Amino acid sequence: MDLSEQEFKRIRNWVYRNARPVDLARWKFHFEKGPADAVLSALSAYQNEDGGFAHALEADSWNPCSAPIQTANAVEKLLEIHWEDGSHPVIQGILQYLDSGAEVEGTTWKNVVESNNIYPHAPWWHTSSNSTAHSMFNPTAILAGFILKYADRSSRLYQRGIEIARELSAFFLTDPGIEMHPLKCIVTLIECISDAGLQEQLPYTRLQAAAVDQITVLIKRGAGEWSGYSCRPSVFIQSPESPGYAGNAALLHEELDYLLQTRNEEGVWNLTWSWDAFEREFAISENWWKTHIVIENVLLLRAFGRYSPSLTNSCS
To answer: Is residue 184 within 8 Å of 141, Cβ to Cβ?
Structure first.
């Protein structure tokens, strides 16, 4: 079973009815030949004057104050569209924020900031949370990767980014048995090391090998474990070139069948989590997250040939 043209159009219509501008720009970029700079234009609405991001770009926290996690979310969207121009104001703003020292403890950026507590948020973004998403790697590895990719190599910030990347690499290689979210951050750092051409300056090959081993450890081994908030193969494998695909290909293709079978009555996918608080705000964030999941899942189906790329032109 593949995604049909009719079902693709149904999903597209849902996105057009429910997506916020930044996610609609992402949808258009990926599936309708939309311009990449439209994504940056939409992203800029979430960027504060200090260059950091806020305002529920990370849809589980409605904090209007700049935060490292929100800024890392912006970075992930920039990497997703393979943005290269480091002179763009959005990029320069992020570099300014990271260079300011805001929300830094030692050599890492704070995972949770105190101002989160004042505004609607998921429980794992409260300062008292013991979530496994909170670690030295999340979001510091993502932000360090951004610095390596975009910062001026003669700058103080770039030197700091290299030092942080070396420190995180050493910690990870010493104890690679980390959880899903921190490992995703490490994988992003590895990708940025490659993008920046720094494979010789950092332990790139060892990092890749250790990440692949831990990906295989973390992936849940069948559909019976995928219905909740769990580590499905697609958390790390988005294309045949993704780390970990070679050893987990059969599981990934099983997940593609699972995705096609588990869409809801609207033709999209339900969340596997909730906030258990702030019900009105979560109802809004839920649709923002659903749109993000739609984009990820349709990209995954396309990457592995489960719908024809020609469909991308049928709705332009």
So the answer is: no
Q: How far apart are CA 288 and CA 254, in angstroms?
A: 27
Q: Which two tokens stand for residue 47?
A: 């960027």
The reported pLDDT for the residue numbered 132 is 64
pTM over 0.85: yes
Q: Classify 88 as helix, strand or coil.
A: coil
Q: How far apart are the first and last CA of the chain?
A: 25
Token pair in block for residue 135: 């670690």
160 contacts: CB under 8 Å, gap ≥ 6 = 147
Coil, strand or helix: which one is 48?
coil
229-268 pLDDT tens trace: 899 999 999 999 999 999 999 999 999 999 999 999 999 9
Q: Residue 212: its pLDDT value, please? A: 97
Find the mean pLDDT for residues 286-303. 97
Give CB contacts under 8 A, 24+ apart, made by 147-155.
147/95, 147/98, 148/192, 148/193, 148/196, 148/198, 149/79, 149/86, 149/192, 149/195, 149/196, 150/86, 150/91, 150/94, 150/95, 151/86, 151/95, 155/99
Q: Which residue has tokens 């990906």?
A: 215
Contact 220, 231 (CB under 8 A): yes
pLDDT band at 315 (very low <50, low <70, confident <90, very high): very low
